[in-house]
Design a protein that fits this description.
The protein is of the alpha/beta class and 213 residues long. The chain has a domain of 147 residues: P-loop containing nucleotide triphosphate hydrolases (Rossmann fold). It has 9 helices and 7 strands; from the N terminus they run E-H-E-H-H-H-E-H-E-H-E-E-H-H-E-H. The protein has a 5-stranded parallel β-sheet. A two-stranded antiparallel sheet has the order 5-6. It binds adenosine monophosphate (AMP). Adenosine monophosphate binds next to helix 2 and helix 3.
Length: 213
């Protein structure tokens, strides 16, 4: 199936997309991951987007559309895909329409993860991870045995540069201003299903599966 997952940062759409991708074999495409990879590899795109991402602002439509087109050129998406974090603006939604109609792979469902802003702030500002083995933690919900230290290899944990409270509030404001208007664009086509992203992850997964029926 060809899906879009929309929702504010920290609404759990990435986690759910990963699980659904593993279960169904649909390709998980996260533009945030693709951009972070470009930053890590110091590619020309990576160098231009690094500071924008750190500040929690949106990367330009042209850049993110180019990165997405490049991803589709790998040619492994015909059996199904889950777009996670794209489109985030109406301009991106229009560009996606053009790309997918060329490939004859139109979107079949848009799942919107609804979570209140204050829950998002608590979730995101508490996120930590191990820079060596990438194990994710949360200071309140999934704390390591020793505060600030990875259980597996003893490495000091780090916070994503855009996960501080100010940055999270910027990202949320961008979501409300720029991304939420994308939802009616798909609602008019009858593609939108809403799930409660504030529920425990297993329940959210069940709601997602129901939304695909
Ligand atoms: P995410 O991992 O989805 O929260 O994305 C992290 C950051 O990457 C965002 O705060 C933006 O700076 C950038 N980003 C990811 N996807 C997009 C997109 N579709 N449009 C613009 N910026 C994006």
């Amino acid at each position: 199936m060809r899906l879009i997952f929309e929702g504010p940062p920290g609404s759990g759409k990435g986690t759910q997309a990963k699980k659904l991708s593993e279960r169904r074999g649909w390709i998980h495409i996260s533009t945030g991951d693709l951009l972070r990879e470009a930053v890590r590899n110091r590619t020309p795109v990576g160098l231009t987007v690094e500071s924008v991402m750190r500040e929690g602002r949106l990367v330009s439509d042209a850049t993110v559309v180019e990165i997405l087109e490049e991803r589709f050129r790998r040619g492994d998406c015909a059996a199904g895909f889950i777009l996670d974090g794209f489109p985030r603006t109406l301009g991106q939604a229009a560009a996606l329409d053009r790309i997918l109609s060329r490939l004859k792979l139109p979107v079949q469902r848009v799942i919107v993860f609804e979570v209140r802003d204050e829950i998002i702030v608590e979730r995101i500002t508490g996120r930590r991870s191990c820079p060596v083995c990438q194990t994710p933690y949360h200071v309140k919900f999934v704390p390591p045995r020793k505060p600030g230290i990875c259980d597996k290899d003893g490495t000091p944990l780090v916070q994503r540069p855009d996960d501080g409270e100010d940055r999270v509030r910027t990202r949320l404001a961008k979501y409300h201003e720029e991304t939420e208007p994308v939802i009616p664009f798909y609602e008019r086509r009858g593609l939108v299903r809403r799930v409660d992203g504030g529920a425990p992850p297993d329940e959210v997964f069940k709601s997602v599966e129901q939304a695909l029926a």
